[in-house]
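Researcher: Good morning. I'm working through a list of sequences from a screen, and I'd like to move beyond sequence-only analysis. For each chain I'm collecting a predicted structure so we can compare shapes side by side. This is the next one on the list. No need for commentary yet; just the structure.
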Amino acid sequence: MAGAGQGTPGTPRVLRAMNDRAALDLLVSQGPLTRTQIGELTGLSKPTASQLLGRLTAAGLVRTTGNVTGRPGPSAQLYEVNPAAAYVAALAVDQEGLTAAVADITGRVLGEARVDTDAVPADATDLTARLVTRAVDGALAKAGLARGQLHRAVIGTPGALDPGTGLLRYAPHLPGWQSRALREELAEVLGVPLVIENDVNLAAVAEQHDGAAQDFDDFVLVWVDEGVGAAIVLDGRLLRGATGGAGEIGYMPLPGAPLARDGDRSAARPDAGGGFQRLVGAPSVVELAQQRGGSGVRTVAEALARQDVRAEVARRLATGLAAVVAVVDPRLVVLSGEVPQAGGEPLRALVEKEFTGLALPRPEIRISDLAGNPILTGALRTALAEARDAVFDTG
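Model: Good morning. Structure tokens for this chain:
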């Protein structure tokens, strides 16, 4: 409840804050609206809606943006959220580098930049901070903004921050990201509140808001790329686990895969070691095709173009998914990442067929249809939600 911490529920101050937030959320989701439309959608009287808009305009949260034309009677003024009310940064981290995007409070992306890991010497003591700031500053420059104009930042990385130790776990292939004070160090250098979130969890946020999992409160996103992981959403909330490691199914032991042991986690490659990842990760799919006579195969798409490889990868995927489904019982499984995207509907149909006859719940299985980088999209969604909670609180 907006403003509840600064007044007694039901008081005029709290009710005003609640009405302000409702109107701002409407303007974000539905675009420019007239005073009459805002009143109708919120149930507010015309005088109350007018006072609300005057208050939000004076606060710099709302601005006018022309008039409604083409209808009889006086033209009505349109209002929209002021895009300059806040700006956020989102970053997606991978083995090769970082991608950063900057957006205004409405969610419009203003600038994007990519920085490769080798842009900073590998032995630099402040490697991570330099990479992050270079990526963010590059996106800000394209947006015509300065770092001091940012309000929030969210970074998506493989692995997860252990809430007990502060260490980034399950991501040994990211040198320079293992500091116990990583979040504090990056927040200080950027000068804004910062969230570091598991990349697959952020992809699930994107699916829930913009993709295949809309209208689903119980689903599992399975990410199959260079690395393999899952995000588990139950009753609309992400399951994180005691150490932040819920969904690290890449390490899950399965028949036919070498066991992933502690020593394997120090390997530089995400496909090293064992477990589910060693069966279905992108490098293993290419390796499978090469072992079956495709010596010239170099990409996942080329590998999955072979019917025998596609069938075997589907069998392996179904085996791993069956273990997850048996425990979680989701309504939906979304397959995302390079392998599902390359395999497409033929791979999805084969995975679904492999479930036939199993003594398990049979969730719907979909391939992600999100355009662009779903991890970056999820990071933006998360950063925007946090910024709006702070900026739209008028109590």
